[in-house]
Amino acid sequence: MKSADSFKNVQQSEQEGLVYRIIDQIRRTKELQEILNAVVVEVSNFLQTDRVIVYRFDREESGEVVAESIEQQRLPSLLGLHFPASDIIEYLKAMGVQSELVLPITEKTTEPDQVNLWGLLVSHHSQPRTILKRELRVLQQVVDQISIAIIQSNLVLQARIEQRQKSIINQVITQLHSLPTIQLQAALETTTTALSGCGGRMYIYATGELYTYGEQPKLPESLQNTVIEEHPFWQHWMEEFRKDSVWTITDIYNDPELKFLTNAFEHTNVSKAVS
Known about the structure:
This protein is an alpha+beta fold. It has helices spanning 2-28, 32-47, 88-93, 133-178, 184-194, 232-241, 259-265, and strands spanning 51-57, 62-70, 82-84, 99-108, 115-125, 199-204, 209-214.
């Protein structure tokens, strides 16, 4: 009786230790990849299975293995590989997987009580293996902690994006207002780079000055001396919206009014967005 109680206490200690170590990892680092790398190692040690992976879904109903722990190379590595979500189970069986445990990893959204399926925590073994209820309970706590880590990572990422945006805005403000002379070319280059654009243009209607950076549209020879911004389409837009509006065109090739632009941009990397 004492032996059974001792074994039960050891099991409970191992389970609590696993969850505690993962919680501690989340507290010590805000980098999601580091946390996932630690999770797969901890879960692999806990279950004593051949391979543990984290599979992350993308927006195209597919996904990628983003973290992995392999024991004694009994199963091949999947790290970095992409799988269609609908085919992954059959694919794994063909690679010698005899037993599998799959737990969904969810991500909270901005909508109350709504979550998205972020990915999967998956354990593979090359031999048949029964998963105990106590193991499932522990692993559910693990994926709950992963969900918390995802929330933490998203907040950190958003804070970094906002900080970068503020830095860029301050840089452009300095170039336009704080330097001894206005640096229009520098402001254009800073803005284009910040938006990950392949090229940018700035046209000053009051003076007719044109500043360019990166790839530019190529007009037909008959219009070589024409400035695109002086086309009647832009003139009309300026008359209607010039006061305080920002206009974004998501696809120049699907807007009939912008047909005059498509030929000019065919030789560039501009394929879906221009603003």
